[in-house]
């Protein structure tokens, strides 16, 4: 969805990837049983990895906005 007067910052594929990562995070949250003794540590480990992937996808917007400072995923140079 584009806010009037703005441009899309992420492609449809990037937005879809973020949606899938959100769904995966919710699934992992259910898999890591909240009543378990190691739940907090297990969830923190999974959440960290999910956040790393989210950051990679969201960095695409910065790479397009500042091509002289950041590179697109799969790109070869700044």
Residue ranges: pLDDT <50 for 5 or more in a row? none
Content of β-strand: under 5%
The average pLDDT value, as a whole number, equals: 89
> Total strand count, please?
0
Sheet with most strands:
none
Question: How does this model look, in words?
Answer:
This protein has 78 residues and is an all-alpha fold. The protein is 60% helix and 0% strand. It contains two helices and no strands. It has helices at 12-31, 39-65. α1 (12-31) runs antiparallel to α2. It is elongated, with a radius of gyration of 16 Å.
Q: Quick summary of this structure?
A:
The protein has 78 residues and is an all-alpha fold. 60% of the residues lie in helices and 0% in strands.
List the helices and strands and how they pair.
Elements: H1 12-31, H2 39-65
Helix pairs in contact: 1-2
Which descriptors would you attach to this protein?
single chain; 78 residues; mainly alpha; 2 helices; 0% strand
């Amino acid at each position: 969805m584009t806010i009037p007067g703005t441009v899309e910052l992420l492609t449809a594929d990037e937005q879809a990837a973020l949606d899938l990562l959100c769904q995966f995070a919710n699934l992992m949250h259910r898999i890591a049983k909240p009543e378990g003794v190691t739940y907090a540590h297990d969830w923190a480990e999974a959440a960290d990895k999910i956040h790393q992937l989210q950051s990679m996808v969201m960095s695409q917007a910065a790479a397009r906005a500042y091509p002289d400072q950041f590179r697109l995923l799969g790109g070869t140079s700044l």
